[in-house]
Amino acid sequence: MAKPLLSAADVKGAWAIIPTPSKDNASDWRATKTVDLDETARVVNGLIDAGIDGILSMGTLGEAATMTHDEKLDFMRALIDAAAGRVPVFVGTTCINTRDTVALTREALALGADGTMLGVPMWCAPSLDVAVQFYKDVAEAVPEMNIAIYANPEAFKFDFPRPFWAQVAEIPQVVTAKYIGVANLLPDLAAIRGRIKLLPIDFDYYGAARMDDSVDAFWSSGAVCHPLVTTTLRDLVAQARASGDWSAAKAFMGRLGPTAAPLFPNGSFKEFSTYNIALEKARMDAGGWMKAGPVRPPYHLCPEPYLAGARKSGQMWAELGKALEAEALGAAA
Amino acid sequence: MAKPLLSAADVKGAWAIIPTPSKDNASDWRATKTVDLDETARVVNGLIDAGIDGILSMGTLGEAATMTHDEKLDFMRALIDAAAGRVPVFVGTTCINTRDTVALTREALALGADGTMLGVPMWCAPSLDVAVQFYKDVAEAVPEMNIAIYANPEAFKFDFPRPFWAQVAEIPQVVTAKYIGVANLLPDLAAIRGRIKLLPIDFDYYGAARMDDSVDAFWSSGAVCHPLVTTTLRDLVAQARASGDWSAAKAFMGRLGPTAAPLFPNGSFKEFSTYNIALEKARMDAGGWMKAGPVRPPYHLCPEPYLAGARKSGQMWAELGKALEAEALGAAA
Amino acid sequence: MAKPLLSAADVKGAWAIIPTPSKDNASDWRATKTVDLDETARVVNGLIDAGIDGILSMGTLGEAATMTHDEKLDFMRALIDAAAGRVPVFVGTTCINTRDTVALTREALALGADGTMLGVPMWCAPSLDVAVQFYKDVAEAVPEMNIAIYANPEAFKFDFPRPFWAQVAEIPQVVTAKYIGVANLLPDLAAIRGRIKLLPIDFDYYGAARMDDSVDAFWSSGAVCHPLVTTTLRDLVAQARASGDWSAAKAFMGRLGPTAAPLFPNGSFKEFSTYNIALEKARMDAGGWMKAGPVRPPYHLCPEPYLAGARKSGQMWAELGKALEAEALGAAA
Amino acid sequence: MAKPLLSAADVKGAWAIIPTPSKDNASDWRATKTVDLDETARVVNGLIDAGIDGILSMGTLGEAATMTHDEKLDFMRALIDAAAGRVPVFVGTTCINTRDTVALTREALALGADGTMLGVPMWCAPSLDVAVQFYKDVAEAVPEMNIAIYANPEAFKFDFPRPFWAQVAEIPQVVTAKYIGVANLLPDLAAIRGRIKLLPIDFDYYGAARMDDSVDAFWSSGAVCHPLVTTTLRDLVAQARASGDWSAAKAFMGRLGPTAAPLFPNGSFKEFSTYNIALEKARMDAGGWMKAGPVRPPYHLCPEPYLAGARKSGQMWAELGKALEAEALGAAA
User: Fold this and answer.
1) Among A259, B30, B35, C83, which has the minimal tally of Cβ within 10 Å of its Cβ?
2) Residues C87-96: pLDDT tens digits?
3) Which residue of D has its CA nearest to A254?
4) Which candidate from A181, A183, A211 shows the least CB-CB separation from D210?
5) What are the residue boundaries of the structural domains of chain D, listed by start?
6) D140 has a pLDDT exceeding 90
């Protein structure tokens, strides 16, 4: 608890977003203790061994909505113990009000979490004032905890406008953000004045990195399909930035980009959001690198054609990872 | 716990929706035990004395999102004890997943609640299948508990379409619904085949009652501004239905209707929903009949002009109540 | 041109909305003179013979967007000549700006049209001020022309809020409105203070009529599937109002209501609006009473499953009409 | 008419979007011949003298919706004559159906226009099939005319998804597009396979150019506030691309970017779209470089605070232009 806060500059490279692995009966509302703690430890070790720079967890696909309180504590413990301080670990403590969030965040801190990837209570759509004050209150209540703004407009009924970024940039604990899209990236970067490291998704990282040199980190839920894809993206962008030659990074995007399409039903982020957890876990399971396991209720139902698309996305990602492995062997030979 | 389930026909007349009265420090995230239990008991007694037929609580304006677990139990206890079986009491047990909802619903049942006004987990927008299965699972888990579907499209990211009504009508525990609007009332009534009593809001009750003779109950959050307005509406519609002469009921709507307008900022239900709790509590406090008290965080911030509109709405309602009192005295003299 | 303006009270009973019948090549952008003028005359005569009280035309399904100027004049002439003053005839003169609308409305007046069913220019979403001023300007420019507000929120990017109705009620030429839904019917009726006859769709007429005694007219695009259905609805509501016994009207709605469902893809008005013309013309052709003909470009493309639903809707309507004929024969025998 | 079609590669640099200058009475629906032809010629000459690379016109702010047919021909003539072949000139021929669009596009071709900036008929929201077929039909009907897709989602009720771009890229006449945003830029660029030059707005040009080397052209409605700002942006990006040093271009964006904010009411593109014409013309008039003149009906009404923001945006742009002039003088001295 005496650790100093991170700074935006400390958040760098490839950050994996991980699911909460579940046991086989996890879709049954009668089930308890559904977290697969062994798989949790295995995944964390695997990601760190693969060179991942940080871990985000307990967001939407991490089933923060549907784990019981006890399961949350169990999972946090397993995660933090496995990481053992090798990389920063952000858990998720989003609740549907300020006071429960404060309480859970304090528990996470006591367990040794470096930070919380934190969304806004979503029963009512938050106004700008409500959203900003929520982050201020949590930061005031748990001043040793780093905060990653979890900027998901569908989950939190909030579009995270520029004035929001300008205001939360004043909160020292807010050091990073799981960010979506590049439409407003440049003005949002202007609004935060270097105080928050915005993390685009892996699929947007190449474009975002070219738009602004300050973008040197991203999040990747694909990392658990095959981490080498994620670290390769990170390294190619870093090499391009150093050399000024972006051709290899761009060529790699030509291989990575098409894996995104089948994940989004009808190309719609809104439709994806309805089935977010089921789609992401199906994709991860199809990747074959980890066992994400069944979805906790009530979100365990999803149309089969959507799941098939997600699985295809995971398989494509994994195939790309295997091709990269083969290329590395070829290069080494 | 041995009480038989209600039937749709048992849900009749004027059902008050009440807030969770709060102590003066309730907007501070440091506060605990914020429920004003004395005011809770006083309001319940007052409503029953005034002739209200049932009580709904712990919805959006009832701050189900922002009470702590302990506060929920305290409030339920006070509410159920005060009602003492004189009218049916529905608490609210909406949580952000199935298992927490089941656990809380079981606690509510054990405390003696007649039912739960139950919304759908709202982190992800529920698909039709997810929403229906959620109600089935809760009903299976707590079979002695009556369920009122809490059909708020803004809160729950779900538009409660006709097939939803057709499917939840198969669940015996689902006996009523806090319903919004009259746009789809007739087809939705056809879909439920008499198995669920749909409760329109007070402002829509006259129109809904004229549209269909089966509509003989409604919900009223205005009841706590002055219950006589709510019971007068109920009685005038009943008299009209009996006599076939709707002129007095219609004339009364001409007095009641205008009190709604200032409650909705720019006439928008979506905008109202963002500030639902603050607006409703301001309106109630302005009514002068009860002390709703401050809003729990993070929803305690609201633009002053919106609050002024809400207060005006509450004052207009209260003035109508006083006028009705005076007219009753005049008629009696 | 010396005819006095209609009043709201003059608009009564069942108003048919008709398509612009087209020749077989009408979906080809090379085609000209695509209006089937013979079918136009036949349909108008048929509707009037069947007892329809008024005719609305050249709205969305009437292909006002896609007829050439010459075709519009040809169609108006055929329509007005066939009606020959027996019932009021409203054409449609919606253009994408004020000046073109004025010019076309003047031409329609010169041809003998009683009124124009008039929407708002839809390139930009109109603000409230823009929408109101548009109707004021057209009314000022063509003071002898009756105006029916064409209140379609999807077509015109405008939600026709209460203040709109209050303001256009001040324009003497505005005597009626093609109205959608019943959600806001009572407050909108209050806003117009008796100066505009709001016409709900046939499917909503029973409910609207019960909600308010002033509702004694409606529009029906189903009329051209089989006019007896439309006039039966009108007559049963009138009889119910006179007798106070609504049971026969309600029972009839139980037969009519289900014909609506297959017309709306996935139950969505927004989705219906995308394919409005193709769906309505397919429905009408399937009714077998008239030949609506192919859709003019660019709106001639529509997914086959949607068309199948629309055809089913038309067949169901036509079957209801035939059943009514048989029942009338039975009753007469 | 014997001119060969342009290719995507021919569309380069800074393309100005111009309004249709209007005479003082142009907001009156009684007015005719409202185009200020002298100002039209002056503006075209001024832009070309300032080094602008191409001209787009008769879009939303160019009042394609509200000019009469005669005015459109007058304006096209003046515009094309003034340009005299020195830069490519695109007029706008968007109508609310295919056949009128074909007719007007043929007239524009006959007058010597190089291309048409063409939106989709917007009475009904177009489905993907309808939108694609519309462009195919116009291209087939007027094969000598270059087409710029006018991708405005608010005006045309269409979100221009990736499959749209993939399909219209097959049409040889489609050589460029007035494009909005950068959110989907990289996948859309992949979809068009180099066959269409996508033009981002000036405010997005820096970011888009960094994202992809193929982006070497943009549109600018600010050009008529002070063209030097627009050409400076073009030149700094070109220099950065040549040298690999983007610092001067980025620093310039830091000066240009803030002029955008006051143009968008509450930061909303949707709200901007409602008042697009009034806001853009107010901004242009405030720039002082040209006289855009009053707005044609019905879009001439706009809240004063919104206009004030637009004027501020225009003044800021003009001041930046003057500062650039002064800096150029200083550098030359």
Assistant:
1) B30
2) 999 999 999 9
3) D190
4) A211
5) 8-256
6) yes
